[in-house]
Write a structure and sequence with these properties.
Chain A is an all-alpha fold. In chain A, about 75% of the residues lie in helices and about 0% in strands. Chain B has an eight-stranded mixed sheet with strand order 6-7-8-3-9-10-12-11, sandwiched between helices. In chain B, strands 2-1-4-5 form a four-stranded antiparallel sheet, with helices on one face. Classes of the chains: A mainly alpha (about 325), B alpha/beta (about 350).
C-alpha cells in the first residue's frame, strides 16, 4: 500500500501545483480587469501617478508583468506592498500574521469537529427525545446564523455586557483573547458537523451490520464504538473540506470584528487599497491551505475506509 | 431417542408503535424447536417471521414491545445441568451478553451489507469469541481460521486479513455463517440466507448449513418465503399469516396435504415449469392491516372458501393427523368438506410423481 499511496500523493501534489498556477493567472487577470489602481490618491496628479506606476513596473504589458511576478514567486518573493506598508516585502508582513490566522483556524476546526461530532452522535443515540430536539434546534440556529452575527453577539454579550472576555484580540494574551473569535468561527462548523453526524449515525445504526454485531452478543457501547463510529466518519470527512471555505471567508470578517492581526484583516485592507501584491499573496496562501487540507482529507479517507484505499489489497 | 426441546414460544404477542397507532405484529404465536431439527417459517412479507426470531435474539427496536407470552430457551450448562430461561422476560442487555451469539445466533439475508465494510473478516469472526470466551487473540485466530476452512473458504489465512469488499457474495455469506457459528451456538436462525445469492451458490450454501448442522448437532430455523428452500432443507414447516402460525406440520404434510386455504394459495403461487397454465397464480387481495383489530380469521377477507364463522371467531388449531395442525374452520369436523383447488391438486400429484 505504501508505494501506491506515495505515487498517489505525488500525483496529487503535481495537480495542486497546476491548480495554484491557474489561480495566480486568474487572480492576476481579475485584478488587471478591475478598475482603479494602488495609487488612487486624490493628491496625486496624472504625471505623478504615471511615474509611480512606472516605478513599480505597473505600466508594462499584462503578460510581461505576470511573467515577472511568477518568476519572483518561484524565488520565494511575493513582491512588495504598494499602499498598506509602502515598499515592505509582503512575505515579511505575512510571516507575523499567518501563524495567528492558522492557529485560530485550527482551533476553530478542532473545536467545531469534535464538539459537532459529539453533539450529532448524542442526538442520534437519543433520537426523538428532548436531547435530540435541543441539539437539532441549536444546530439549525448555528447553521443559519452567519459567523459575523454570532461574533457581534458574543462581543456584545460575553465581552461588553458580562466582561468575561476581552473585546479585542490582544497579542500578549493570544489564547484567552482568541476564545471569542474561535467560538464565532466554530459555531457554523459545530452546527454542520452535528447535522451530518446525526443523520449518518442514524443511518449507520439501522444498517444490517449493526444488527449482526448485536446478534453476536456484543455490548451496546462496543457496537457503537467499533462498528458505528468509523462508518459514520467516512461520509462526514467529505464535509470537512467545504467547511474550510466557510472558515476562510468567516475569518476575514471575524478577524476584522475582533481586531485580530491576521491574514484575513490583511486581505481586507489589501482589497480596499488595491494593494495587488498583498491580495495575490494572501489569496495564494489561502488557496494553498485549502488544497493541502483537501489532500489530507483524501488520504485520511483511505485510512478510515478500506474500500477507498488507493489500490489497497489485491482481491 | 427422545426429542429434546430447545426453544419454545408460547402465546407471544408483539406490537409496534407507529405514527398511525399500535400495530399488533405478532398475535399469539406458538412455536417449538427441538435439538438437531430444522424448522422453516414461511409466510409473506410482514407476516411476522423475522420479528419473532429477532425477538428471540433480543434485537427489537425501541418502538416494538413484547406485550405477552414467553420465549423459553433450554440448554445444558458446563456442569451438565439443564437450564431454562425466558428470553421475553430478560433485559435486552442480558439477552445480548448471555444468549446472543453464544447460544442462539443468526445468519442474515444479505451478507454483503451485514458485514461491516471497515473491519477485516478475521476481526469480525473473532469479535464474538473474544466477548464470550475471553480467548486470547491468537487462540481466537486459530479457531477462526479453522471455521473459515469449515465453511469452505480456501486460503483462510489470507481471507482472515481481507475486507468484505474483497470477497464475492457467496463467500461473504460463508463468512456470515462462520460468524454465526463462532461461539458454538445451539440454535441457528437463518433469515432468508440465500435470497441475495444466485441460484448456483444458493444450493451450496444450503448444503453447507445442512452439513454443519449435522456435525455440530444444532437446531436451525429458516425464515423464508422461498418454498423451494423449504422443500430442500426443512423437517417441519410453520406457515405464518398476520402474526400467527396458521398451519404447521412435517414438510410432507404441508407440501402434499395442505389444509389451510392460505397454504393452498402459497403453494399455488409457487412457480412451476411443468404447469399448463400460462399465468402465475397470486393470492388475491392484500395482507391485512395490523393496525385494526382483527375479528375472526385474519385471512377470511381474502379467502374464497371463507365460512360465516371465519368472520366472527378466530379458528383454533385443529389436529389433522400426525404432527399436522391447521387453524381453519374448514378443518372442523362439522364443516362441509372443501377440497383444495383442482390446479393445486394436479400440481401436488405431479410433485409426488416426481419424488417417487
Amino acid at each position: 500500500m505504501g508505494k501506491d499511496m506515495g505515487r498517489y500523493i505525488v500525483k496529487r501534489v503535481l495537480i495542486a501545483a497546476v491548480t495554484l498556477l491557474a489561480i495566480t493567472f486568474l487572480l492576476f487577470l481579475l485584478m488587471d480587469l478591475l478598475p482603479g489602481s494602488p495609487f488612487n490618491n486624490e493628491k496625486l496628479n496624472e504625471a505623478q501617478r504615471a511615474l509611480l506606476e512606472h516605478k513599480y513596473g505597473l505600466d508594462k504589458p499584462f503578460f510581461v508583468r505576470y511573467w515577472i511576478y511568477l518568476n519572483n514567486l518561484l524565488h520565494g518573493n511575493f513582491g512588495i506592498s504598494y499602499v498598506i506598508a509602502v515598499d515592505q516585502p509582503v512575505s515579511g508582513m505575512m510571516a507575523s500574521r499567518l501563524p495567528i490566522t492558522i492557529r485560530m483556524g485550527v482551533q476553530a476546526m478542532l473545536i467545531g469537529v469534535v464538539v459537532g461530532l459529539i453533539f450529532g452522535i448524542i442526538a442520534a443515540l437519543k433520537k426523538n427525545t428532548w436531547i435530540d430536539t435541543i441539539a437539532t434546534i441549536c444546530s439549525v440556529i448555528g447553521f443559519s446564523v452567519p459567523a459575523y452575527v454570532f461574533a457581534l453577539f458574543l462581543v456584545f454579550f460575553a465581552a461588553f455586557k458580562m466582561g468575561w472576555f476581552p473585546i479585542r484580540f490582544a497579542i500578549d494574551q493570544p489564547v484567552f483573547s482568541s476564545i471569542l473569535p474561535t467560538l464565532s468561527l466554530s459555531a457554523y462548523i459545530i452546527a454542520t458537523m452535528a447535522r451530518y453526524a446525526r443523520s449518518e449515525m442514524i443511518e449507520c445504526l439501522s444498517s444490517d451490520y449493526i444488527t449482526l454485531a448485536k446478534a453476536k452478543g456484543i455490548s451496546e457501547q462496543k457496537v457503537i464504538i467499533r462498528h458505528a463510529l468509523r462508518n459514520t466518519l467516512v461520509p462526514i470527512i467529505t464535509v470537512v473540506s467545504p467547511l474550510m471555505i466557510g472558515l476562510i471567508t468567516g475569518s476575514v470578517v471575524v478577524e476584522q470584528i475582533f481586531g485580530v492581526p491576521g491574514l484575513g484583516q490583511m486581505l481586507l485592507s489589501g482589497v480596499q487599497n488595491n494593494d495587488y501584491n498583498v491580495i495575490m499573496a494572501v489569496a495564494l496562501v489561502y488557496s494553498f491551505l485549502y488544497i493541502v487540507i483537501m489532500l489530507v482529507v483524501d488520504v485520511l479517507y483511505g485510512f478510515i475506509d478500506p474500500r477507498i484505499r488507493v489500490s489497497g489489497g489485491k482481491a | 431417542m427422545e426429542r429434546e426441546r430447545v426453544l419454545s414460544i408460547r402465546d407471544l404477542e408483539i406490537s409496534f408503535d407507529t405514527v398511525h397507532g399500535k400495530a399488533a405484529a405478532i398475535r399469539g404465536m406458538r412455536f417449538d424447536l427441538y435439538r438437531g431439527e430444522t424448522v422453516a417459517i414461511v409466510g409473506e412479507s410482514g407476516s411476522g417471521k423475522s420479528v419473532t426470531m429477532k425477538a428471540v435474539m433480543g434485537i427489537i427496536s425501541n418502538n416494538q414491545h413484547i406485550d405477552h407470552g414467553s420465549i423459553r430457551y433450554s440448554w445444558w450448562d458446563e456442569k451438565g445441568q439443564k437450564r431454562t430461561v425466558d428470553i421475553a422476560k430478560m433485559s435486552e442487555r442480558d439477552v445480548r451478553s448471555k444468549i446472543c451469539g453464544r447460544h442462539i445466533s443468526m445468519v442474515f439475508q444479505d451478507s454483503m451489507t451485514s458485514l461491516n465494510p471497515t473491519v477485516t473478516i478475521g476481526n469480525q469472526i473473532i469479535e464474538g469469541m473474544l466477548e464470550h470466551y475471553k480467548l486470547s487473540r491468537e487462540e481466537a485466530k486459530g479457531r477462526a481460521i479453522k471455521l473459515l476452512e469449515d465453511v469452505g473458504i480456501k486460503n483462510p489465512e489470507k481471507r482472515f486479513k481481507q475486507y468484505p469488499h474483497q470477497l464475492s457474495g457467496g463467500m461473504c455469506q460463508r463468512v456470515g455463517i462462520a460468524i454465526a457459528l463462532a461461539c458454538d451456538p445451539d440454535v441457528l436462525i437463518c433469515d432468508e440466507p440465500t435470497t441475495a445469492l444466485d441460484v448456483t451458490i444458493q444450493l451450496k450454501i444450503l448444503n453447507l448449513i445442512k452439513k454443519l448442522q449435522k456435525e455440530k448437532q444444532i437446531s436451525v430455523v429458516y425464515i423464508t418465503h422461498d418454498l423451494g428452500v423449504v422443500a430442500k432443507v426443512a423437517d417441519y414447516v410453520c406457515v405464518m399469516y398476520a402474526g400467527r402460525i396458521i398451519e404447521k406440520g412435517s414438510v410432507e404434510e404441508i407440501f402434499y396435504d395442505p389444509r389451510h386455504p392460505y397454504t393452498w394459495g402459497l403453494l399455488s403461487s409457487m412457480p412451476d415449469l411443468t404447469t399448463d397454465s400460462p399465468r402465475l397464480f397470486a393470492i388475491p387481495g392484500e395482507p391485512v392491516n395490523l393496525l385494526h383489530e382483527i375479528k375472526g380469521d385474519a385471512f377470511a377477507p381474502r379467502n374464497p372458501y371463507a365460512l360465516k364463522i371465519d368472520f366472527e371467531q378466530a379458528p383454533p388449531m385443529f389436529h389433522v393427523g400426525g404432527k399436522h395442525r391447521a387453524a381453519s374452520w374448514l378443518c372442523h369436523p362439522n364443516a362441509e368438506k372443501v377440497q383444495m383447488p383442482e390446479s393445486l391438486r394436479i400440481k401436488i400429484d405431479r410433485m409426488l410423481k416426481g419424488v417417487s
